[in-house]
Write a structure and sequence with these properties.
By secondary structure, the protein is mainly alpha-helical. The protein folds into 2 domains: 40 residues, no CATH class; 95 residues, Tetratricopeptide repeat domain (Serine Threonine Protein Phosphatase 5, Tetratricopeptide repeat), CATH 1.25.40. It contains 6 helices and 5 strands, in the order βββββαααααα. The longest helix has 17 residues. The termini are far apart. Bound molecules: zinc ion. Zinc ion binds next to loops.
Length: 150
């Protein structure tokens, strides 16, 4: 029996739509687009593994839904561990309507999973102040992570 190590390349998508393959997006901060010449900063939103559909394709249908549909899609993404996609949806909901406590909670939860505890705490505090029970429950956990770091 042999063990195969397969390291997939990642693909960075420029705003112009051109895609550039990079070996390891964690090693570089930005690339220069070969098509439009733009300097593309690599973020979790414009990079994906080669061979899997780009985030924009995953999100395309979801993004045109109603607020409720987008929140439901975001929750589905969270369940699949696709936090970047979920966060994009939550952001789009919050851009439209600032008092969406579910979106604040969802975003806070994603940041918690991604170990961005400071941002998570900030978002969950807002959700909690709006009366979100789940946020209230999660806050002490995030807070203990925060204090553990200091
Ligand atoms: Zn470009």
């Amino acid at each position: 029996m042999t063990t195969e190590f397969y390291i997939a390349d990642s693909v960075v998508t420029c705003e112009c739509g051109a895609q550039t393959t990079v070996a390891d997006p964690n090693m570089i901060e930005s690339i220069t687009c070969g098509v439009c010449g733009r300097k593309v900063h690599i973020t979790q939103f414009n990079v994906h593994k080669a061979g899997s559909p780009p985030p924009s394709a995953l999100l395309r249908s979801a993004e045109h839904g109603t607020l409720a549909e987008r929140l439901a899609s975001a929750v589905a993404f969270v369940r699949e561990g696709k936090y970047a996609e979920a966060m994009e949806l939550y952001d789009s909901v919050l851009k439209e309507k600032r008092d969406q406590r579910d979106a604040f909670y969802g975003l806070g939860f994603c940041h918690y999973k991604l170990q961005n505890f400071k941002e998570s705490y900030r978002l969950l505090r807002m959700a909690s102040e709006m009366g979100h029970a789940g946020a209230e429950k999660l806050l002490p956990k995030v807070h203990s992570q925060l204090t553990a770091l200091w």
